[in-house]
């Protein structure tokens, strides 16, 4: 079910994934492999999908808290799979979860 909320969340996840790639490259001195960067981007895309599936809520504070929790959970999968190497990327995932949720809350039709 491709709702407006889902579309917004996926697009935001994909865009923030590009930001993550740029940040990872800058922090590593452009040493990261393409497969690692793709996995980083894909993790953010999945974050958008997960947040897009979440039920719409009328309370902004509740939505932002949920975005932080979902961002934490999705980011932890990548963080743990990479040997707990990139704490900055993990923390950014929490913030990105909030950003994705805010955009979905603000711009999706709430019927």
Query: What percentage of the residues does DSSP assign to strands (E)?
Result: under 5%
Fraction in helix? over 70%
Radius of gyration: 14 Å
Structural class: mainly alpha
Note the overall shape: elongated
The rounded distance between the terminal residues' Cα atoms is 16 Å
Keywords: Membrane, Transmembrane, Transmembrane helix
Secondary structure: elements and pairs:
Blueprint: H1 4-28, H2 34-53, H3 60-81, H4 87-107
What would you say about this model in short?
The chain has 111 residues and is an all-alpha fold. The protein has helices at 4-28, 34-53, 60-81, 87-107.
Q: What does this protein look like?
A:
The protein is mainly alpha-helical and 111 residues long. The chain has one domain. The protein contains 4 helices and no strands. α1 runs antiparallel to α2, α2 runs antiparallel to α3 and α3 packs antiparallel against α4. The longest helix has 25 residues. The protein starts with a helix and ends with a helix.
